[in-house]
Structure formats: structure tokens, C-alpha cells
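To: structure subgroup
Subject: Chain for Friday's discussion

All,

I'm putting the inputs and outputs inline so they're searchable in the archive.
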Amino acid sequence: MKATYSAALVLVSLALAGSVNLAAAGQALQTVAIATAAAGQSGYIAALIEAKGISAKYGLKIENLMMDFTEAANALRLGKALASSMQPSTAVNLLKSGTDIRLITPQIWSGNSWVVRKDSPYKSFGDLKGKKIGNFSRVTGAYFFSAVIAKERKLDIEKDFQNVPAETGALIALLERGEVEAINMFEPHTTRLVLSGKYRVLLDFDIELEQLFGAPPLKSSVGMLKETVEKQAALVKAIRGAYVEAVRLIKSGQDKDFFEARAKEFFNLGTPEEVSAGMKVNKQNFAELWGDQFFQSQNKMLQIGISLGLLPSVNINELWVK
């Protein structure tokens, strides 16, 4: 079960109090291209916004450009999209490269965990010291989160563990074959592994980092160019409003029918047990926090990434649009 987030943090819904629907009767909708992941939770919320007619309530016709995270960030940089789903760590790298990015609203928490075989002897992350672990590549947000956790436990992810880099499917195969002792994995794959009865979660990144920093790590936000944010404040407010409303639907379970109908497409969940467990996790993983204390918690994590040489040094305070 995920941690209960600090009441001191500002809920997005409260931060947006006073936000109003921008669409009026007979008003033409503004078409906006948003680059987003084709699968997983970023793709899911984009499809939900479209299917439920949420964007039209805010005067928008959103054109979802489905692609992977790297392509999505590049689409914004190259001017192919007006907004893009992206990790805060990606935004930091873009800032360093000269692309002035601002993050306008949250999407999802990391959803990552260290997963081990159910019969393994490990009781804590520290027990894996010196062992082979399957991890994502060094340039990913998932790796960055794992490094932050290690540092906070007075460990070095690169020196105290034998990292075996791989992508999602290969990581699962490594664990199945016993070639690594644990893997860094994210939802919904973790849910399927646990439901198989062969694996268990050793450490949940979101719970761990929420306890350490006051909020879980943000895996995905919606980014826009600084110039767009400054010149089109009403558009920023409208896009944020659409995403906030979609998150509210998910957090309240009002997307149940839609989730069940699209679980296979977006999450590759097939059995009733997988779909039920997947929806529960999906509800937990969508992020609803925003505001100064939230920004501070994320900046602390990003700063550790900078200190470890995983992220370039930039003014991370500039990232967030209140």
C-alpha cells in the first residue's frame, strides 16, 4: 500500500481553486498537440481526457502524439508539439542543453520498486550490497531514483552493487533466470510479477522517498517551453485544468469502465485479477500534489542527482509553474 502523502503538501485541486472551464457555448476549440507516451499511464490519461470529452470543457481539442518518452521530449524541443509528457530529470537535461522548459502539472509518481524472488533471503535493500541487480540505464529517471535511495541509505548505487543494465523485458528475464538478485521495475509489471506468486516487492520507491522527502518522486509531468508559458497563460491554465480533472476521475475510481475496457491496450493486463489489481495501483500512482512544499521535495531529489553526477547543474527552482 502506498504511503499517505503529507497533508501539508498542496493538492493540485486546491492550487487550482478558482480555475474555470474556458469553453463557452459555440466557442471554437483550440487545437493543441501534446506529445505523450503511447502506452502506460501517460498514454492512459491522454486517452481518458479525449474519451471523456474533458479537453473540450477547457476549450481545447488535444491532438495526442503517441511516442516514447525520448521522442516526446524531442518533439517539444523541435517544435512538433506545444506540450509534452516528461520526467523532471529530462527537463533538467533539456534546460542544460538550452531548451528552456517549464513543468506545469503533475501526472504520475514513479511506480518503481526493487523486486526480488519470493523465496530470496533479502529483507532490506542494504542486503543486496555486492550483489548483481538489474537496473535501467544510467540516463533514465528510474536509475536516478535508485541512486537517490542508495545515497540516503549511505550506499553508492554504482560502487556497492553490480548493476546489470537492461530494458524492461530483459530485466524481468534476468530475474526469472536467476542471473540477478533483484530488478528495478515499475507498474504494471510489478503487479503482474507479484500476482504470479513467484516474486515480492523488497522496497517501494514511492513509499521510501515520500518518507525521506515528504512526497514520492514525480515520474512524469507536462512540460512546455518557457516562452509559451509566459505568452499563453490561459492555454497553460486550460491544459492543466484538463489533466487535473482527469486525475480526479482516476483517484475517485470514476474511470473504472474505461480502465477495464483499455487495460489490455495500455497496460497489457488480461486476467480479471490483473485488471483489478492494476486499477488499484493506477489510482495510487497518479499524482495530485503541487505547490511550494512539493517543489521543494522534488528539488531535493534532483539536487542529489546533480551531486552524484547523474544530472547537470542547473537552476532547478525555475522548473516549476505554480
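Points worth raising on Friday:
The chain is about 45% helix and 20% strand.
The two ends are 29 Å apart (CA to CA).

D.
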